[in-house]
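Researcher: Next entry in the queue.
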Amino acid sequence: MIYQMSVAADSPVHSSSSDDFASILDAELDTISDASADIQEGAEEEEDNDVVEEGDYDLKFDRAKRRKVESYENVADLPSSSSQGSSPEKNKCLHPGVYAGMCMKCGIKMDDESGVAFGYIHKNLRLANDEVSRLREKDLKKLLHHKKLYLVLDLDHTLLNSTRLVDVTVEEGYLINQRDALPDTLKRDLFRLESMQMITKLRPFVHTFLKSASNMFEMYIYTMGERPYALEMAKLLDPGDVYFNSRIIAQGDCTQRHQKGLDIVLGQESAVLILDDTEAVWKKHKENLILMERYHFFSSSSKHFGFDSKSLSELRSDESESDGALATVLRVLLRIHSLFFDPGRDDNLMDRDVRQVLKRVREEVLMGCKVVFSRVFPTNFQAEQHHLWKMAMQLGATCSMELDSSVTHVVSLDAGTDKSRWAVHENKFLVHPRWIEASNYLWKKQPEENFPVSQSKNK
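Model: Structure for this entry, 459 residues:
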């Protein structure tokens, strides 16, 4: 059964009036903070005298969100506080949010749809921009106190790969017809979903990745897929419901068509990192993005992106557990987290920006390299606008149009160009453009000898 978000039935919150839904929100955030403290500092009694067990932090967060909604549902039909004879000016409502067409603070009917819809928390919930900002700041303080940041995770080609059953090729048929003979590691991460007529393969190392990342981040799933698919994938990745809870954002939650945005993530942009295989959907948040190498396990996935070679499944192979994309990016996340929370820094924790830390770590990859390109860009194309030029700069390299003794690398598609021959004569590195891309995905300068440049056949 697909996990369905619903209002918690056992909420301890029973307000007797509709005077301040926002205060309930604050109270529940305090409960979350207490829960996290129990996890990190040992078992302590909360206000309700419940002891939080190991791993319950995210569960508390999910319950808190649901309690907010339930509390409103219990009191929404009662008279608002502004009708109890108090001063109108003193009790003037700023309408922090809307639930089911009514202000969640004072209870009056609201006709406009201002603010942001948080449908993944509850389909009828909208929060005003000021309220979103207030909640983000409050939640950030609590999260930083427990040395956590936010991590937004894409699904397809980042954490897993799915294909329709009808698209499974003859060479991939063994995945279905010979399941009992499959290696245990493959059998464990391969799922046939009859209800959706799909088969899904989780990316190697994903379970270890999620467990380790959850110690450093509050995690969201954010996919352009539809909600039923997103919930089903979340069940495969997080069967114990300990990593994501209600933080699952799908296509219908997006506020802009064909774009993902942090406007519906309850986390300050300065504390959010994103893992996604597609840069174009994050136009407003590229500084938060860590671009992932796409995971193409199935043939249909490879063909969709224009690859003619056989897929991993057809080759009966897979990514490495220890050196694959998720293991690599986990090491990057550990370093970013360590630098962000470096106790030797003398600035205010709330003033720190994870985007600056990410930029610093990325620039270490090709630091000290000076790159000249040869016959890589189209004729009359402005070099500085090419994605490889930009990528090399982001990785800390210096890019130039001219050759001189300080140049360390010539990047070329043809070993017969003047610049390529110069590189060989001057004992400089002559590398294929894939050298830059590989260094980018692996977060480490790659051995130049692994990226040789061939002579053009046209010469």
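Model: Residues 21-41 form the longest helix (21 residues).
Researcher: Noted, moving on.
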